Amino acid sequence: MIRSHARMAAFLSTVWMGLGQLYNRQWLKGLFFFLFELILVIFAREPFLRAMWGLWTLGETPQKRVGGKIVVQGDHSIFLMIEGLIALILLLLVLILYIQNIRDAYTDGRARDLGERPLSLFAAGRKLWETGYAYILLTPAFLFTLFLTVLPLLFGVLIAFTNYSGPYHLPPKSLVDWVGFKTFIDLFSLKTWSRTFWGIAGWNVIWAVLATLSTYFAGLFYAVLINAKRVKGKRIWRAIFILPWAIPQFIAILIFRNILNGQFGPLNQLLVSIGLPRIPWLSDPFWAKVSIVGVNLWFGFPYWMALMSGVLTSVDRELYEAAEVDGASPSQQFWRITVPLVMLATAPLMIMSFAFNFNNFNLIYLLTSGGPANPSYAYAGSTDILISWIYKLTLEQSQFNMASAVSILIFIVVATISIINFRRTRAFKEEDLV
Amino acid sequence: MNTTVGLNKLRSYLATFLLYALLVATAIIVLLPVVWIVISSLNPGDTLLSTSLWPKALTLDHYRDLFTKTDYPRWYMNTLKIATANMFLSTFLVVTSAYAFSRFRFPGRRAGLMAMLVLQMFPGFMGMVAIYILLLQLGLLDNLWGLVLVYAGGSIPFGAWLVKGYFDGIPRSLEEAARIDGATNTQIFLKVMLPLSYPILTFIMLNNFISPWMDFIFARLVLRSQANKTLAIGLFEMVTGTGNTKFTTFAAGAVLVAIPITLLFLFLQKYLIEGLTAGANKG
Fold it and tell me: Membrane-spanning regions, if any (chain A) (predicted)?
């Protein structure tokens, strides 16, 4: 007869955690697993079922008030939802432990089949430390990411499928319900929402393209300019030009907010003093957009200049000498050697920069706060981009479901760009081989 | 002398002149806002209007006011605390997970890497409401540590990918030699990997130190009371309030924030550029 302690132990551990370990005569470990499941079943079953009920229904008793006094506290839909999600995540962690318990019983059973003595608890602990080292290393980061990134994002995604919004569906006063895709349908079919969305999305794309291209080519221009043979004091010029990158961005933006102030700002004072009219830098939709792109150019180009200067200094001199021998003119050398080399080295970063600019909240919010006001938009100003619109929808207007729906759309755009970019980089190809 | 040679020489002088003119003009555009804010902080008046680039007198009053009449020192300490704590916590989380992903092959590795990639693509504050409620439940709202936790959680996906890319570039032969000599995983990590990773470690630490100085969104969400404000929020409120009557005080505050960060940045610039290019090529 083939002795199969392995299968028997695995089977027992599937029935109830720890049974397989006990069968393998690993008393301490077995007892630990056994008690763990017992405690879970006794104490965690009720709260878990309640959490699932909460996640499913989002609460059933609304708050009742009589004469301004709260008579029945009622269910808080949003708390219920988050508790439900936490319960699901904990269930996932328990399931991982459960599978580990079965695997452990199986491997130790196999060791018995092969006539080896199962490891003592101490030896097993040491073995776990070496083989499970990666998991131990990852545990802190895993927990942080799970609870502070994954959980909030899952919640954020789920919100889009509810009616969580002011003024009628704000807990604890009233309940929130699941509504399916209604928020997305509203976003595209209701006039005010769709007009705002398309208007902002259009400007958002134009802004991201302008911001990326303007800083990229200005950076290239100055990197090449300073690199020219006849420029003396290259290091000093570079040090001066890199300054806007080094200054904390929010400080720079707030400084410009004052410089561009339409009434008292020094720029308009200068214009007036030389006999020109004032320009409404931040209060006219068109000029506000010009200001945003201009300010971004001011602190954006040094980054590219620094990167490209590095690339330029590492280009092999011989390439140019060979080109000169072949009779290439300086402009040919520039367009056929310099530009392609720099582009090759910096193109992936350009796409990353596009994705960053697409969501550059700080610049928009600190410089114009989305203004000037645009009466045909719902809760947005003329220079708002999607991300600053979401911010306003969430923190100022309590339109949580709509904010979440727009976030999902942004995610789809950014994810598409990133995946296209990432597929081309070496890292992904190397990863595929592993 | 040939006239064409003379013409060529003239053209060359003209080109050099134009080149320098362009450089000087750009330098002025780059430097003027910086000079202006420094001068503003030394101007005697209070408001934006009364500030001029050629003030009749200079004063340090606004710097004194900053420390005696506003909560500026407090904001500075808060920000410094948050930034330092975030630097250590985030770097620890990032480096340990990057080491695991780079050097070990285990079930769930690819899924983990993919998940971190996807997580980077969500707009950061999509989870804002959930984080708010979570911190509320944990009693960490309006608490500097609560904010540090939020920053640290958010820094992992991007940082781990970047550092993993760098670790991947370190040859394995060194570790294998150490392993033959009987080194444990922890010893290899601390004595072989980390000393070889100074550029990327500097980059990650600097990044994690600087980013809390710039953040508004989460700082505003988590820190509610006057006593717990960070610099970014405090300074923002100074110039967005009605009438801009504290403009020169803001200027003084801005100068005091900008000086250390700018110097730090300029000193470590080399590492920053290395870190960025390493990230571009490998991560």
Answer: 27-44, 78-99, 135-161, 197-224, 236-256, 286-313, 334-356, 402-422
CATH 3.10.560.10 fits A185-433, yes or no: no
Of A247, A248, A427, the CB nearest to B165: A427
Every domain of chain A and the residues it spans: 5-180, 185-433
Q: Among residues 137-196 of chain B, which lie with CB inside 8 Å of chain A? A: 137, 149-150, 152-154, 156-157, 160, 165, 168, 184-185
Phi, psi of A3 (to 5 degrees): -80, 125
Chain A residues inside the 8 Å CB shell of B235: 250-251, 254
- Residue bearing tokens 């959680």: B153
The residue whose two tokens read 């550092």 is: B163
Q: Range with the lowest mean pLDDT among A400-414, B25-39, B124-138? A: B124-138
* CA distances in angstroms from A410 to A60, A188, A385, B8, listed in the order given: 33, 15, 11, 55
CA distances from A160 to A85, A152, A183, A214, B136 (A): 15, 13, 6, 35, 22
Per-residue pLDDT of A17-61, as tens digits, reads 989 888 888 888 889 999 999 999 999 889 999 999 988 888 888
pTM of the predicted model as reported, rounded to 2 decimal places: 0.81
Residue A155 near residue A82, CB atoms below 8 Å: yes
What DSSP line would sit under B185-234, residue for residue? HHHHIIIIIGGGGHHHHHHHHHHHHHHHHH--HHHHHH--SGGG--HHHH
Which B residues, 244 through 283, put their C-beta within 8 Å of a C-beta on chain A? Answer: 244, 247, 250, 254, 257-258, 261-262, 265-266, 269, 273, 276-277, 280-283
Q: Considering only residues 405 to 424 of chain A, which have any Cβ-Cβ distance to chain B shorter than 8 Å?
A: 407, 410-411, 414-415, 418, 422
Buried b (16+ CB within 10 A) or exposed e, A352-384: bbbbebbbbbbbbbbbbbbbbebeebbbbbbbb
**Residue A236: closest CA among chain B residues belongs to which residue?**
B27
Distance (Å, whole) CA A162 – CA A82: 13
Identify any residues that bridge with A69 across adjacent strands, giving them in sequence order: A66
| A404-416 pLDDT tens trace | 899 899 888 878 8
Domain boundaries, chain B: 3-62, 72-282
A contacts of B247 (beta carbons < 8 Å): 258
Tokens of A353: 């920069």
- Please enumerate in sequence order all residues whose Cβ is within 8 A of that of B130, keeping only pairs 6 or more positions apart, or say none: A82, A151, A152, A153, A155, A156
**Chain B (81-110) residues lying within 8 Å, Cβ to Cβ, of chain A:** 92-94, 96-97, 99-101, 103-106, 109-110
Beta strands in A261-382 (DSSP E): none
Q: Which residue of B has its CA nearest to A126?
A: B184
Interface membership of A378 toward B (CB under 8 Å): no
| Amino acid type, B2 | N
Contact between B262 and A246 using a beta-carbon 8 Å cutoff:
yes
Asked if the Cβ–Cβ distance from B96 to A140 is below 8 Å, we say: yes
Longest dimension (CA), chain A: 105
Q: Considering only the top CATH level, what class is B72-282? A: mainly alpha
In B27-46, the residues whose Cβ lies within 8 Å of chain A are 27, 29-31, 33-34, 36-37
Can you read off the two tokens belonging to residue B95? 């480096």
User: C-alpha angle A84/A86/A88, rounded to 5°?
Assistant: 70
